[in-house]
């Protein structure tokens, strides 16, 4: 299994994704340390369009009913399809904080807007961290000049590090495509995981910028479509966060003919590029899931429809018994079949088959068995990236979900997260 | 919180449940060691009605689509509402074993039937353990005379031990009630947990006998109703097993006027007694959940309807982030509220309140906060049994779920269950 998985290759054009440093003409990024909750590390990130007038912007946000104050602020301010910057803090989520939380989210935005000399409503804010605690605004005010001073074209890695909480590595991805002869555009973004990750959402925090010229409507279209095929296909622990926010800015510095529809070849190519970046960031988030030691790709094929395939895939992907078996490198296929059987999808056991990579371990409801199969299965389970395919024998629809294993470290990280 | 929780007291008459040894006139139980998978411990249990003609019997089984071969056998044989005995083995589940599995389940039943001198279809079989492996019938045949020789009125504890897999203690519960003047009846049962425990099912294995005279229809009615208020209210890890089987026998040795309806005072009293036994066994299963160190009672009140309350309660009860916080004694209420918010129930954040025991930590969408509340919450979280109540402020319906925490030992037990 490669980092751009089979499913991606089937559905989309092949786009090379780069996880190293990148720059995006027209945008700058930076980071600083407010000391609000962490010490000795940056915890504020600022991403900014150089044009004081801002640019096209789109977003996808959590569907959790307790959405955080900054999520509400972003939703409102993105209604016009335009923004200039996003300020993000790590450590305190500003979720379940009532009216006071909304006031503080707006204050954060105002501080950045004043520093940038932009209208207040052109700045978005995002937060991640402990739920139920109020943000501290004073340290943000104090450090704002330094944060704005840190902005530079190659500041993305600093920004990616500043938004980390329990993440162990920063997550960056970018692609470059030639949209029309002589007009190459870049799509690049950063993300943070790494717990409270589940579908039916955007993800915790993801910021993507591009120098392509795109109308807000087209940008929102490809953003929503891209999320459906990326962050809505992953799970670490099945817990959808209060703060999931994915924001995409399109500045237009590439000088391409603006993308104004969703059907032209250029627009489709842009959509593929954006999806590739989002999918790569999503997979990076799973690989760095809390306590994760393995990346597991769960493909459900032969389903009657995509929703059924998705339901089976996520039931398997979220099963603690399946996830601990992966951690223990125990090729306990019975747990995978059992999870599929309780998914609520009316599947026929006698038509179900299960494969680890290309190895069939369960065919039409009957185990293959034998020492050789058991040995080969164990060899596959010892790998760091595992592909499994469950064929339901019902139809032609499929869905691929990505998850990680459930390890001692997940418990360790989460038994005392607030202290 | 006592072992018979608040909810039980509200809905039902108070019945004293005994977890010690019991006997049930008209029934015998026993155990023996086949060596099929474990060594040095009994792994076969036999429960038998002394009347060779059998007695009324009822059952509730898993809704997993991959139900095990013995589950299919039991379902078929219970259609007539009558049976004499149940033979259970621990270590191999006989699930996902195809036609061969069905043949072996029937062979197991035949061996017991021959030993008991009863018709083959009067014997039920249940299995628990590894999925996908075939039962070994020869060791069962070899040990059958000894198993039948072990049957005695006080053999329940031996039987309860023989069906354990990852359970750490045997689970027994019984009640005695006077059904009519001078006619006291006993309802007693045993159960095993302790992983792959989730609602929408019966539970792994539960066997209950009573000397009350009850028609099969009435017995099935109270069995189904009792499961709804007991085993369908618990979860250890959200994984519904392939083998869940709950079987109830009613022998009639008590000599009461047979219960032929579900509305008489006697019948209601019997229903309460059965429910009390089932609920106590269910709570014992949670307390002995894999790796469990705490019992958590999650009451959702003020819901628009029972189904909404249930959905919120189970979303909280199955959240790995909530469960690890309980393990770490971290009163991280934000995770509880967050889980409720992603449950799919359209709740209004500004009407939601959360209580730990009687301590309000979140009121109408706003945290109470303060050092005192934090200290008191930590004190409550340090206890072994924790009650929390989430009030949705929508209506008058409620649901209580029981779960346990998620600890290092859960990972340890399940990372290498088959080896």
Structural account:
Two copies of one chain form a homodimer. Chain A contains twelve helices and 16 strands. Chain A is an alpha+beta fold and about 425 residues long. Chain A folds into two domains: about 280 residues, L-amino peptidase D-ALA esterase/amidase, CATH 3.60.70.12; about 120 residues, Roll (Ubiquitin-like (UB roll)). Chain A has a six-stranded mixed sheet, sandwiched between helices. A six-stranded mixed sheet of chain A has the order 14-13-12-15-11-16. The N terminus of chain A is likely disordered.
> CATH superfamily assignment of the largest domain in chain A?
L-amino peptidase D-ALA esterase/amidase
Q: Which class of secondary structure composition applies to the elements of chain A?
A: alpha+beta
Write the CATH architecture name of the largest domain in chain A: 4-Layer Sandwich
Overall, the morphology of chain A is globular
- Please give the domain count of chain A: 2
Total helix count of chain A?
12
* Fraction in beta strands of chain A: 15-25%
Helix content of chain A: 25-40%
Averaged pLDDT of chain A, please?
A: 88
The CATH C-level class name of the largest domain in chain A: Alpha Beta
Strand order of the largest sheet of chain A: 4-3-10-9-8-7
């Amino acid at each position: 299994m490669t980092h751009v998985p089979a499913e991606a290759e089937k559905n989309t054009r092949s786009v090379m994704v780069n996880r190293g440093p990148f720059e995006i003409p027209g945008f700058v990024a930076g980071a600083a340390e407010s000391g609000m909750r962490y010490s000795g590390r940056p915890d504020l990130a600022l991403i900014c369009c150089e044009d004081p007038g801002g640019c096209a912007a789109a977003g996808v946000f959590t569907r959790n009913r307790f959405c955080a104050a900054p999520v509400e602020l972003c939703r409102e301010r993105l209604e016009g399809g335009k923004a200039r910057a996003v300020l993000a803090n790590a450590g305190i989520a500003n979720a379940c904080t009532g009216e006071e939380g909304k006031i503080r989210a707006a204050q954060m935005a105002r501080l950045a807007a004043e520093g940038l000399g932009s209208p207040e409503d052109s700045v978005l804010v995002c937060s991640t961290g402990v739920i139920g605690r109020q943000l501290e605004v004073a340290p943000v005010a104090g450090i704002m000049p330094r944060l704005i001073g840190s902005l530079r074209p190659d500041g993305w890695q600093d920004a990616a590090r500043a938004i980390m909480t329990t993440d162990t590595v920063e997550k960056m991805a970018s692609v470059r495509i030639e949209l029309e002869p002589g007009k190459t555009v870049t799509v690049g973004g950063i993300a943070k995981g790494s717990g409270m990750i589940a579908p039916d959402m955007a993800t915790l925090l993801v910021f993507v910028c591009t120098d392509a010229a795109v109308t807000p409507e087209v940008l929102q279209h490809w953003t929503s479509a891209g999320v459906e095929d990326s962050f809505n296909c992953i799970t670490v622990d099945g817990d959808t966060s209060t703060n999931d926010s994915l924001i995409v800015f399109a500045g237009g510095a590439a000088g391409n003919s603006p993308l104004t529809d969703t059907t032209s070849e250029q627009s489709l190519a842009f959509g593929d590029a954006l999806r590739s970046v989002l999918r790569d960031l999503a997979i990076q988030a799973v690989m760095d899931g809390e306590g994760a030691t393995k990346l597991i790709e769960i493909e459900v094929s032969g389903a009657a429809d995509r929703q059924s395939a998705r339901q089976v895939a996520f039931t398997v992907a979220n099963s603690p018994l399946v996830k601990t078996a992966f951690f223990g490198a125990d090729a306990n296929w019975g747990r995978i079949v059992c999870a599929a059987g309780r998914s609520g999808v009316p599947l026929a056991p006698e038509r179900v088959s299960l494969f680890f990579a290309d190895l069939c371990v369960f065919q039409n409801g009957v185990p293959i068995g034998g020492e050789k199969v058991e040995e080969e299965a164990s060899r596959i389970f010892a790998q760091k990236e595992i592909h499994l395919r469950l064929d339901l024998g019902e139809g032609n629809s499929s869905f691929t979900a990505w998850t990680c294993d459930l390890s001692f470290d997940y418990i360790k990280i989460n038994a005392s997260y607030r202290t």
